[in-house]
Design a protein that fits this description.
Helix 6 packs antiparallel against helix 7. It is built from seven helices and 15 strands. Strands 1-2-3-4-5-6-7 form a seven-stranded mixed β-sheet. A six-stranded mixed β-sheet has the order 8-9-10-11-14-15, with no helix packed on it. The protein is an alpha/beta fold. The longest helix has 27 residues.
Length: 247
């Protein structure tokens, strides 16, 4: 496990060279907020990192219910039974293994690793604008229907989960990066993912922290680059579909 600290944020990266999966500990005055639970074997590393910071984990937030973000949730809850678990309301169904779409959602199949056998149930269902300590919850669907990002109102650090990736090159979720294609392969709705990153751009973050890849300082230019590339790719794909319909 690799750890990198930026102010009040600690990035924990499992399998950093092969398939980097990030969790984050956000330091609050009276404790730590864990964002995402990584892979099934991640619990020991997460707890050890919290111990080194000298504070207890007081909240567990799941950004979305893909299995590389909830893998250690049961093990953590077993060790921390009184710590509340937060998850976006839409993702709570997916956490149970339910792949069905809700009324009004685009008829696109859910992708990525949908968890099986997770017994922990959330204590709090998150909605847009909720606050968990210093973190503001932002609805950013696309990669998954209920994905949420979190903005630290003290430091302006943006924890975007899988709304974007930096591994293999910065990209909006759903846009293929040859050196790390997995987030793109696991994205439900590419157009919604693009709109979500445009929304995140408006927060003018000082730091971008994602689910897969290293953190970026002063990320405005990189985010703009990713948006432009996604717009170009989606327009090209739409053009190909239009020509196919005509023929």
């Amino acid at each position: 496990m690799r750890t990198i600290r930026e102010d009040k944020l600690l990035q924990l990266t499992f399998m950093p060279r092969l398939f980097p999966v990030n969790c984050y500990l956000v330091e609050e005055e009276n404790g730590l907020t864990l964002i995402d639970a990584g892979m099934p074997y991640s619990a020991a590393g997460i707890l050890k990192a919290a111990s080194r910071l000298g504070k207890e984990i007081t909240s567990i937030i799941i950004s979305h219910a893909h299995d590389d973000h909830v893998g250690a949730l049961d093990a953590l809850k077993n060790k921390l039974p009184d710590v509340p678990v937060y998850i976006p309301q839409r993702e709570a169904r997916i956490l149970t293994g339910d792949r069905s779409l809700q009324p009004g959602e685009p008829d696109l199949p859910l992708r990525g690793g949908i968890p099986r056998g997770i017994v922990t149930r959330p204590d709090v269902l998150l909605k847009e604008g909720d606050r968990i300590g210093s973190l503001l919850a932002i609805s950013t669907p696309g990669h998954s229907p209920g994905l949420m990002s979190f903005f630290d109102t003290r430091t302006r650090a943006l924890l975007a989960s899988d709304a974007m990736q930096t591994r293999g090159g910065i990209a909006v979720s759903g846009q293929m990066r040859v050196w790390f294609p997995f987030p793109a392969m696991s994205t439900w709705n590419k157009q919604a993912a693009l709109e979500s990153v445009k929304k995140l751009r408006e927060y003018s973050p000082s730091l971008l922290a994602v689910g897969h890849g290293r953190m970026l300082h002063s990320p405005a230019a990189a985010i703009e680059q990713a948006i432009t590339a996604a717009e170009r790719n989606l327009e090209a794909a739409a053009g190909k579909e239009g020509r196919a319909d005509v023929s």
